[in-house]
């Protein structure tokens, strides 16, 4: 049986309106719901990633009051929980500014050796900066990476 051109255009227009307003045809809606239910039953829900990656930190290594070199450090903030992640993302410029002031204020070298980074000391210092900028008990740990390029 042949459909009239008016009927075909009317159906096409109805489908276009449904798509424009985010609805689906009745048959398609039930299929989508079935697929969604099937997908939700598969696997476990992944836990949220409560970390914030900071921009690369460029820090001078000072030895006996003289700059020995610059190092590039990748800093990741490990948060106490996911609830404060949005706030932390909004505060990145302020935290980065405070981090730069901190690493330019005192050496990051261990024992005045320009080849050894005081990772524990730097982590403590940056953690204290975070507590000052965003408040205590939001950042639980600081992870430093990519420091092996310049430090042994």
Q: Could you walk me through the main structural features you see in this protein, from its secondary elements to its overall organization?
A:
It is a single chain. It contains four helices and six strands, in the order H-H-E-E-E-H-E-E-H-E. Helix 3 packs across helix 4 (119-134). The protein has two domains: 5-41, no CATH class; 51-145. The strands form two sheets. Strands 1, 2, 3 and 6 form a four-stranded antiparallel beta sheet that branches. A hairpin with a 2-residue loop joins strand 4 and strand 5 (113-117). It has 152 residues and is α+β, with helices and mostly antiparallel strands.
Task: Tell me the β content.
Answer: 25-35%
What kind of oligomer do you see?
single chain
Q: What is the approximate shape?
A: elongated
Low-confidence region ranges: 16-39
Integer-rounded radius of gyration: 27 Å
How far apart the termini lie comes to 80 Å
Which whole number gives the mean pLDDT?
Answer: 77
The count of DSSP E runs of length 2 or more, i.e. the number of strands, is 6
Largest sheet: 4 strands, antiparallel
N-to-C SSE series?
HHEEEHEEHE
Structural class: alpha+beta
Number of helices: 4
């Amino acid at each position: 049986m042949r459909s009239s051109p008016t009927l075909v255009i009317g159906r096409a227009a109805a489908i276009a309106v449904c798509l424009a307003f985010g609805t689906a045809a009745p048959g398609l809606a039930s299929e989508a719901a079935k697929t969604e239910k099937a997908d939700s039953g598969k696997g476990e829900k992944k836990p949220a990633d409560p970390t914030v990656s900071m921009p690369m930190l460029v820090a001078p290594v000072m030895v006996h009051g003289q700059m020995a070199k610059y190092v590039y450090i990748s800093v990741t903030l490990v948060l106490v929980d996911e609830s404060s992640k949005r706030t932390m993302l909004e505060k990145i410029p302020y935290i980065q500014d405070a981090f730069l002031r901190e690493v330019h204020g005192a050496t990051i070298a261990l024992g005045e050796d320009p080849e050894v980074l005081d990772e524990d000391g730097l982590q403590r210092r940056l953690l204290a900066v975070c507590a000052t900028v965003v408040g205590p008990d939001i950042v639980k740990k600081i992870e430093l990476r990519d420091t092996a390029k310049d430090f042994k």
